[in-house]
Amino acid sequence: MENDKKRVSVSIIIPIYNCSSSLRKCLDSIIGQKYTDFEVLLINDGSTDDSEQICLEYVDKDERFRYFPKKNGGVSSARNLGLSHAQGRYITFIDSDDYIGREYLSKLVKYIHPDSLVQCGLKRVSGTVVTDIKCVQHALTTSSMTDILDHIRGFACSKLYDRALIEQHSIRFDEKMTLAEDLCFVLDYIYYTHSVTFIPENEYYYIENQQSASFKLHKPEALFRAWYAKYQLLERLNLREPIGEATLANWKNYIARDIFTWTTSLAIYDSKTPFDSSLTKELSNRYGQYSDVLQGAHTDSKVKDLILSLMLKRQFRTASILIYLVSFKVRRNYRIVR
Question: What CATH number is given for 2-209 in this structure?
Fold first, then answer.
């Protein structure tokens, strides 16, 4: 019986969807870990390729691997299923097209303790180019929300979580979100932590995929849900402990850029001409939900900043025309999700 097994230290949750070309490399990197007290939960999210066969192959040869097939529901539902079956004291997530260095688990476990989080650096792999991305130069343990937000990465992977904390506060991925669900999970988790430790070791290999969600322009409602959830979580963290002025400004600038992406999506999906009134009405109707975050916010573009300032002045008609014109550049650079 599963309940009679010795409790493992770490549960590794891997959501899987049509990744047969990269899956073996991912799983082999786990088998090769220096730290061996772990279980692997393979969550097959309705794959139609050979992913299931590969999963069963690893389950047969290593008893630490467990397999859970499900209907396709997205990465959040797959991770949540993994959380519901995990037995380890700690949790880490690995994406099926990524892989880890031999000391990934041992480095994370070294610094973990109850009610905490550990985040390591990563290596971004784009074709043959590998880029080191460190979160700190030297190990840093902090309980300061300002320090945490200065170093945290909005990526569920490359971290080790306390499962007891997750279960105590019923922390889960929002299955209605298709964007920023990782960041929202992380921000929700750190609200309850006593401390976060950042370590410089780059033991997580993140494979940059040009077909991923980061390179798509999603529909307006998905974008609105994503940025507004981030805004609400940031406000919640600020209420727990006042965030430093510069750090809070950086996060508000980040959210302001999201707001601009949302308005651009509105222009692409919902406006037939630059003078279509639907975009103007949408900006006006939802202004009250984002006016606070726009105060003093800046993006990476003078044109975008002009548009945001027009919205602050409630000049939605002029703002919507400029947004529509800017959207032509976005149409060329992004894959539009239909």
Answer: 3.90.550.10
